[in-house]
């Protein structure tokens, strides 16, 4: 079964902020490119089988049905839920952020 990927405007804004931070504040364009490439791979995997990723570690978000995908070799996570055949990406965060309060 193929899933439709819906990346919310909020998630896109969060990603833009992360990339901006990596490029302009940390002066690390390579890390920004790696983040974007890794997210593209995860998005492709979400369209195939979103259930390959675990439920959120945060108990409240898990109870609400949210799952998380960890960006390999980086400390970022993608938070999403699955409704019927649609995967809704609702946020992209650094793991040290208090992301449950930002959704």
Question: Could you walk me through the main structural features you see in this protein, from its secondary elements to its overall organization?
Answer:
This is Toxin-antitoxin system toxin component RelE family. It comes from Lachnospira eligens CAG:72. Keywords: Toxin-antitoxin system. The chain is of the alpha+beta class. It has a single domain, classed as YaeB-like fold, CATH 3.30.2310. 41% of the residues lie in helices and 24% in strands. It contains three helices and four strands. It has a four-stranded mixed beta sheet with strand order 1-4-3-2. Strand 3 and strand 4 form a beta hairpin. Helix 1 runs antiparallel to helix 2. It starts with a strand and ends in a 9-residue tail after the last strand. The mean pLDDT is 96.
């Amino acid at each position: 079964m193929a899933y439709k990927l819906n990346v919310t405007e909020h998630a896109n804004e969060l990603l833009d902020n992360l990339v901006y931070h990596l490029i302009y504040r940390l002066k690390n364009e390579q890390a920004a490119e790696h983040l974007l490439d890794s997210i593209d791979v995860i998005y492709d995997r979400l369209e195939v089988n979103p259930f390959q990723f675990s439920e959120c570690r945060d108990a409240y978000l898990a109870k609400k049905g949210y799952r998380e995908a960890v960006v390999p070799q980086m400390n970022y996570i993608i938070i999403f839920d699955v409704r019927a055949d649609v995967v809704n990406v609702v946020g992209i965060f650094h793991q040290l952020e208090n992301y449950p309060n930002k959704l």
